[in-house]
Amino acid sequence: MKNENQWSSKLGFILAASGSAIGLGAIWKFPYVAGMNGGGAFLVIFIVFTFLIGLPLLISEFLIGRGSGKEAVSAYDMLAPKSNWRVVGRIGVVSSFLLLSFYAVVGGWVLIYAVMSVFGFVIKGGADYEAAFSSITGSPWIALFGTAVFILINVIVLTLGIKNGIERASKYLLPLLFVFFIILIIRALTLDGAMEGLWFFLKPDITQLTTDGLLFALGQSFFALSVGVSVMVTYSSYLGKNESLPTSAGVVTIMNIAVSILAGLFIFPVVFAFGMEPAQGPSLLFVVLPAVFSQMAFGELFLTLFLLLFLFATLTSSFSMLEILVAAFTTDGKRSRKKVTWTAGSIIFLAGIPAGLSSGVLSGVTLFDKNIFDLTDYVVSNVMFPIGCLLIALFIGFKMERPIMKQEFFRGNKLALAWYSIWWALMRYIVPVTIVIVFLYTLGIINLN
């Protein structure tokens, strides 16, 4: 493999992989789902499931990627030649394409809000923030312009390559994300009434946790780490042979959990301090927080910091979705990376137009009682993600050669054989069954209440 197509260091890989995992799931979805499911109890269950389910899956994708040295589609061909396992990589490519087509729409909203906040156009006294959000998402020109600019940023970064594009951007954006979070948390904890929100988030109350909440935490544990769509297979294929995959996966997992906790440490004290409900749902970011910040001293400044933070996380996550597409079509060396990246970006923008217009001119177009945006989100998150996770678990547990797994598992570290045995047992027996249960419950096929 050419040097320019590799990470320059273990740190670069960890930051890029962490950036892929840290996105909408950690900063947007986790706080409102935790708010709707008991706060502290949800947090504890989420952490436990992330280590028992999410981490083993992440290690598995790392093993497949570096063990083959290939991107998502070719990796399965390399490890299981003359078989149909390549479908796992193809599902990952299709899932990433669909995911990015509506993810870029949300990224465009965040981008627009961030720019407007910088110029003081978001917070206004007595404003109807729900109406303001509806006007932005409902305007076809504003929504599509934001989507186009967001995709353009991704294209520019990826044309620069792995080391000079994704890795360099992640090295700047991830540290800034943590710095911004610390500033915001310090400000949040100085508010009157903030401690009530802090205790809601950190003090487990098991009586508040329902079966729904338990399964939401379980689903969040593997969705939050970007596993299931083979983006981590592609990322790990660029990693040198001397690095420890379990250690790297552990660091990525801890960073993802840390960001989820930081999001809660900021959002819940702020929401409680101003008498808002913690179970606000998806409107938390674009409607509730601007209303809250409008009541704070220097509210515009702190809202701007939060929106920039969220934009950074959204970008680093979207880089990996576009990279799996670019890698799949440049692996044979017959097409230039720059041309494929621009082509992929253009197609994704066109594919994302219906989702971008779902809150406006296409709001009346529904299927299964969902608009185009929500339906795409549902299909990817609730169908393709778990199917991808299940197939990866089955590939590891029943198909991939164990000598290759052991070799890659122990490269660069001196972990005891017991750790390998625990990981393999989880992947062969526990993880597949867990995924099937979550999948069937999410689809309404089984009822555990």
Automatic annotation (TrEMBL):
PROSITE patterns for this protein: NA_NEUROTRAN_SYMP_1, NA_NEUROTRAN_SYMP_3
Assigned keywords, A-Z: Membrane, Symport, Transmembrane, Transmembrane helix, Transport
Matches recorded under SUPFAM superfamilies: SNF-like
Record field: transmembrane: 12-30, 42-64, 110-129, 141-162, 174-202, 214-238, 250-274, 305-328, 340-358, 378-398, 419-446
Compartments it resides in: Membrane
Cell cycle is among the record's keywords: no
Pfam families, alphabetized: SNF
Family matches, as InterPro entries: Na/ntran_symport, SNS_sf, YocR/YhdH-like
Topology of this chain in the membrane: Multi-pass membrane protein
Keyword Protease: no
Record-stated family: Belongs to the sodium:neurotransmitter symporter (SNF) (TC 2.A.22) family.
PANTHER family: TRANSPORTER
The protein's name in its UniProt record: Transporter
Gene source species: Lentibacillus juripiscarius
